[in-house]
Each structure stands twice: as C-alpha cells, then as structure tokens.
Amino acid sequence: MTLREKIAVVTGATRGCGRGIAVELGAAGATVYVTGRTTRESQSPMGRKETIEETAELVDAAGGRGIPVRCDFTAVDDVRALRDRIAEEHGRIDILVDDVWGGDPFVEFDKPLWDTDLEKALGVVHNGLDTHLIALHTLLPLVVSARGLVIEVTDGDDDNYSYPGVGAPYFLVKSGIRALARVMGKDLEPHGVVAMGVTPGFLRSEMMLEHFGVTEANWRDAPDPHYALSETPRYLGRAVAHLAADPNVSRYAGKTLASWTLMREYGFTDVDGSKPDWGRWFADVVKPGVDPATVDPEKYR
C-alpha cells in the first residue's frame, strides 16, 4: 500500500481522528496538508494544547510530508487561501478528508432541545456542519481535477440511533454529514470522484482519555466498562489509508462505513496489534443490555 506522490488535505487535523488519519496517510507516503485552528502561537476556542505543527511532525516521522496550515473552516476567506496555496503548489487534491468538528463547547448534554441555549445549539451546527459545506464548496474543484477521493468523517454509520444525551443539534450534524456523503457520492460520480463517509467506534482520543481520567498507558482503567472496546484514532486512520490506496474504492461511493467494517474488509490492526470490533460489541452487549462484566472484551478485539 502506497500513497506516494498523492496530495492529501485533512481538515480538523489538530487532534483526534484528524490527527490519526493525517499520520496514517503520511505513513503510506502521502504529502498531507494538516489544517486546523490551533498553532504553537495561537490557540483555538477549544482551548486544547494539541497543535497542527505537532501533527505535521508526526506525519513526517511516519514517512510522509506534513504541511501545517492554520485554517478556520468557519471563515470562507481562510479556506479560499488554503485552496489557492494548494492550487499554486500542486494544482490538485487527491484525497480530501473532511473531519472538522469544533462543536464540543456548545453541546448541552441530557437536556430536551427546548431547554437548551439556542445560540449554543446553532453553534453546534455552525461549527460541525456549516464547516463541511464550506470546505466542500471551496476545495472540491481541486479534487475534481485529480479525480480524487472525498471522505467525510462523522459519528455513527447509520441514522437509526442517536447516542443518549447528546441532543438534537449533535445528531443533526452527524446525520447531516452522512447525508453529505450520500449526495456527494452521487453528484461526484460523473466527475470520476469517489465520495463516502467513515466513522470511528468508541474513540481513545486525547479528549476522551481526559474525560475518563486515564491515559493511553492505562486506558483499561476507565470507569466505563465499554471502553474496553475503545480504539485509537490511528485505527480509523488506517481505514482511510486503505481506502485511499484501494483501486476499487468506488464500490463504497455514497456509503458511510465504520472502522470495524473496514477492518473486516482490509484486515488492518490498531497500533497495539488488536482489531477492536465495536460494531459486534454493540450488537452483542450494549444494545441488548448485557452486563459487560460477564463478557470477555478480548474476544471482541
């Protein structure tokens, strides 16, 4: 599997899945434009310590070329400047991974919509969905010129289940991204571009580790027993790298596929050599309400 000579753009690459995807594209040899808002000189409203420069350095260390570019995807002028720079330097985008989020500060958990702050609800949608529209509208011409691949990153692989407590705005964003993958899959097909969506399982991102009060070294001590089936952001990254290298990726156009589904297809592992299958765990344990203490999670990894 090689992506050498390929030009990739990952939006929201500061941390989490965006960082994991950027690094794995780099490991396959790609040149990756690492985009996001937090730099070593300027922090985004998210207040996180991770930076695009750190991600770019991880891309370099993995064997690719990381190019950090500060870009606020709520600001059209920023995205146009990114487009113009890539057009001048390479003239195309072979792989566009749209992973912008930025809605965490606005999500109000365990409240009915009418009891939430309207401005916060709109903030979830603006940061989580409008940004995807802006990125696609502005960057797609460079993808079309390369007959490339577009991957939308969401949460969940279908619209039949809303994670408890996250509320309507969050679900609107994540289902909206899946809808974008569906319509782009159709609209871009005549132009030789494949568009689809992907989702991780229970993620061991920097923020989730902090939420559970654990680290990558002791994540099994998390208070949530279902976290035994968690996966690193690199797991989804490896899924994306395999998709980008697959000459028959068009069979997935318009679909949203999960990390565990793609693991079954391509056979890749997480960084620890395991193959966490959150989909099977959810079907066997979470959905029927089985006590996770009675199930060996290693049989699902």
UniProtKB/TrEMBL annotation:
**In which domain of life is the source organism classified?**
Bacteria
Q: Which PANTHER family match?
A: DEHYDROGENASE/REDUCTASE SDR FAMILY MEMBER 1, DEHYDROGENASE_REDUCTASE SDR FAMILY MEMBER 1
Annotated NCBIfam families: PRK08303.1 (NF006159)
Q: What is this protein called?
A: Short-chain dehydrogenase
